[in-house]
């Protein structure tokens, strides 16, 4: 579950955040099918949050969800 690029981890850890810190929280990320929304969803998953992928394009949303599920199983 520790698959974020080193640069992303560095920014997150510089803020004092650690993996699992959001384990009892759920986040809804709009625009999570790509770009900043997708990366926000990845970061939140790395921090342990349950993430709801919200995307207007159903196909893009499903592809993002599948990709995130593979990267962060469970």
Quick overview:
This protein has 74 residues and is α+β, with helices and mostly antiparallel strands. The chain contains 3 helices and 2 strands; from the N terminus they run αβαβα.
Account of the protein in words:
The chain has 74 residues and is of the alpha+beta class. The chain has 3 helices and 2 strands; from the N terminus they run αβαβα. A two-stranded parallel sheet has the order 1-2. Strand 1, helix 2 (35-46) and strand 2 (50-54) form a beta-alpha-beta unit. The longest helix is centred in the last third of the chain and has 14 residues, at 58-71. The protein is globular and about 35 Å long. 20% of the residues are buried. The mean pLDDT is 89.
